[in-house]
Amino acid sequence: MKIKSAEFIVSNSEVAKCPKNQLPEYAFIGRSNVGKSSLINMLTDRKSLAKTSGRPGKTQLINHFLINKNWYLVDLPGYGYARVSKSSKKKFQKFITNYFEQRQQLVSAFVLVDIRHKPQPIDLEFMQYLGESSIPFGVIFTKADKLKPQAIERHVKDYCDVLLKTWEELPPYFITSSSKSIGQEDVLGFIGNTNDEIEQLKSL
Ligand code: GDP
């Protein structure tokens, strides 16, 4: 997929105020500093569509970007972790779970994980939450430039082995680096193919 246009549309903290039209949307989420803003800029060929910043506590908002005038890329805030809560769902901010549970237009989430790290409980729990909520998701490994090719292979295999302990099937996954522009075609190709499938289903 070629990016012909990428526009910021709206930021808000309530799912009810998200765009009303029926375009398919794809939501990007992960722990803060995982490289989400850099990835969104790399995917869309824009330098600062999503605001990169090293500082924690960035505004907690749902950001909609309209891509090629036919799908939305949604930038969600990094998920938080409330240690006191017991249920997995309660560990994530309410407006994030509201978004996932109420947003009809959501086609797939992408959970971003830093390729250098072992699977982190919060990421695995978030995937668990998505699975329990019947929300399709893919995993995007970020910062692949930080590892040598063999280490990339090993880290991805180890991650998949952990996922296969709880999942029957692996989710689609993508290896990316924003600084080296790796993975753009894979992620956009997946979104493009999924959008084509949705169109075909509509015409049946
Ligand atoms: P966010 O908090 O998830 O939006 O993360 P940012 O995109 O702001 O990135 C967090 C930090 O990781 C910044 O210092 C980025 O420069 C760095 N970073 C992001 N993506 C990459 C990448 O692909 N490779 C490397 N080496 N650093 C990255």
Secondary-structure element sequence?
Answer: EEHEEHEHEHEH
The average pLDDT value, as a whole number, equals 91
The largest beta-sheet arranges its strands as 1-3-4-2-5-6-7
**Large-scale geometry:** globular
Q: pLDDT below 50 for ≥5 consecutive residues: which ranges? A: none
Q: Count of DSSP E strands?
A: 7
CATH topology: Rossmann fold
Determine Rg (CA atoms, Å). 16 Å
| Beta strand % | 15-25%
What small ligands are held by the chains? guanosine-5'-diphosphate
Q: Please report the number of helical segments.
A: 5
Helix content: 25-40%
Largest sheet: 7 strands, mixed
Helix and strand content put the structural class at: alpha/beta
Spatial separation of the terminal alpha carbons: 24 Å
User: How would you name the CATH homologous superfamily?
Assistant: P-loop containing nucleotide triphosphate hydrolases
Q: Please name the CATH architecture.
A: 3-Layer(aba) Sandwich
Question: Which CATH class applies here?
Answer: Alpha Beta
As for the number of domains, it is: 1
Compact description:
By secondary structure, the chain is an alpha/beta fold. The protein contains 5 helices and 7 strands; from the N terminus they run E-E-H-E-E-H-E-H-E-H-E-H.
Structural features, described:
There is one protein chain. The chain is globular, with a radius of gyration of 16 Å. β5, α3 and β6 (137-142) form a beta-alpha-beta unit. With 204 residues, the protein is α/β, with parallel strands linked by helices. The chain is built from 5 helices and 7 strands. It has a single domain, classed as P-loop containing nucleotide triphosphate hydrolases (Rossmann fold). The two termini are 24 Å apart. The chain has a 7-stranded mixed beta sheet with strand order 1-3-4-2-5-6-7, with helices on both faces. Guanosine-5'-diphosphate binds at residues 32-38, 52-54, 142-143, 145-146, 177-179.
